[in-house]
Amino acid sequence: MDERNSVIRIMVIMPCPLPWRRKRVHNPQHEKIVSVSANGSIHSPKFPHTYPRNTVSIWRLVAAEENVRIQLIFDEKFGLEDAEDGICKYDFVEIEEPSDGTILGRWCGFSSVPGKQLSKGNQIRIRFVSDEYFPAEPGFCIHYSLLMPYHPEPATPSLLPASALPLDLLNNAVAGFSTVEELMRYLEPDRWQLDIEDLYRTTWQLLGKAYIHGRKSRVVDLNLLKEEVRLYSCTPRNFSVSLREELKRTDAIFWPGCLLVKRCGGNCACCIHNCNECQCIPTKVTKKYHEVLQLKHRSGMKGLHKSLTDVLLEHHEECDCVCKGNTDG
């Protein structure tokens, strides 16, 4: 008999089962309007210490201007009563979009700090609830700030990404740069250094025509030209040629866009009757390779394909005057 009474006493002092204890809080909800004109914060009562039990607090943040948005960032110190079955049932903080009643999120526990939240308009609502059991610390603190409206400038060709420009406009823009580094920064601001490395990485394609035949190694010293070359005579001289025009390429642009080449030019002395019939023409022509940067739109893709390539240009080594229709020689 004594043993049975002992068992009965143990059962009497055991706590009630958890589901039976849990009740939702039905206290009246008094919304507090917070006018937002600068940065600030709201927090659970007594933060960062244990918040009180049986509490319902609601804040509606309202910005003075209608065309601004409100940003919320949770403090790193965050802790409310843990969830049950993955659901924040008892102590929680939630954020609501007042314009349509959408709940942006509800949080509790200690595992992670909620992420940044942003209102759709100039208002946002924060609701904090604690029941009568197991309050925790530190609670929560939310820092709020205003995001001013952004008015983008109308899009113009000069503001478009370089890769989106038509080739004629891009050709004009590219011509203004004096170094490959400056050009690459303009074309691909986010990856220009990688493009530089790719350009100067030796590949077998580059070794074929350019290095094996030794075309690039020849350097012409303009000071060693023949002494008899005079300013106005029919002689080879430096001309600046446009690569797109010279190569008849409309599908690509090049940097540099113009190169110096030797071309015949100057006056001819054989003119007797009609000077238009007398021309300074090349009598010896060689072709030389020039390394340039080539830019093309990628087929079916966004962006530009960039490569170092060798272009073959004619250079006039020797010139002479030819007078058509001059029977006197």
From TrEMBL:
<dbReference type="GO" id="GO:0005615">
    <property type="term" value="C:extracellular space"/>
</dbReference>
<dbReference type="InterPro" id="IPR035914">
    <property type="entry name" value="Sperma_CUB_dom_sf"/>
</dbReference>
<keyword id="KW-0165">Cleavage on pair of basic residues</keyword>
<dbReference type="GO" id="GO:0016020">
    <property type="term" value="C:membrane"/>
</dbReference>
<comment type="similarity">
    <text>Belongs to the PDGF/VEGF growth factor family.</text>
</comment>
<dbReference type="GO" id="GO:0008284">
    <property type="term" value="P:positive regulation of cell population proliferation"/>
</dbReference>
<keyword id="KW-0964">Secreted</keyword>
<keyword id="KW-0217">Developmental protein</keyword>
<feature type="domain" description="CUB">
    <location>
        <begin position="16"/>
        <end position="147"/>
    </location>
</feature>
<dbReference type="GO" id="GO:0070374">
    <property type="term" value="P:positive regulation of ERK1 and ERK2 cascade"/>
</dbReference>
<protein>
    <recommendedName>
        <fullName>Platelet-derived growth factor C</fullName>
    </recommendedName>
</protein>
<dbReference type="GO" id="GO:0008083">
    <property type="term" value="F:growth factor activity"/>
</dbReference>
<dbReference type="InterPro" id="IPR000072">
    <property type="entry name" value="PDGF/VEGF_dom"/>
</dbReference>
<dbReference type="Pfam" id="PF00431">
    <property type="entry name" value="CUB"/>
</dbReference>
<dbReference type="GO" id="GO:0051897">
    <property type="term" value="P:positive regulation of phosphatidylinositol 3-kinase/protein kinase B signal transduction"/>
</dbReference>
<keyword id="KW-0732">Signal</keyword>
<dbReference type="Pfam" id="PF00341">
    <property type="entry name" value="PDGF"/>
</dbReference>
<dbReference type="GO" id="GO:0051781">
    <property type="term" value="P:positive regulation of cell division"/>
</dbReference>
<dbReference type="GO" id="GO:0030335">
    <property type="term" value="P:positive regulation of cell migration"/>
</dbReference>
<dbReference type="InterPro" id="IPR029034">
    <property type="entry name" value="Cystine-knot_cytokine"/>
</dbReference>
<keyword id="KW-1015">Disulfide bond</keyword>
<dbReference type="GO" id="GO:0005161">
    <property type="term" value="F:platelet-derived growth factor receptor binding"/>
</dbReference>
<keyword id="KW-0497">Mitogen</keyword>
<keyword id="KW-0339">Growth factor</keyword>
<keyword id="KW-0325">Glycoprotein</keyword>
<feature type="domain" description="Platelet-derived growth factor (PDGF) family profile">
    <location>
        <begin position="234"/>
        <end position="326"/>
    </location>
</feature>
<dbReference type="GO" id="GO:0048008">
    <property type="term" value="P:platelet-derived growth factor receptor signaling pathway"/>
</dbReference>
<dbReference type="InterPro" id="IPR000859">
    <property type="entry name" value="CUB_dom"/>
</dbReference>
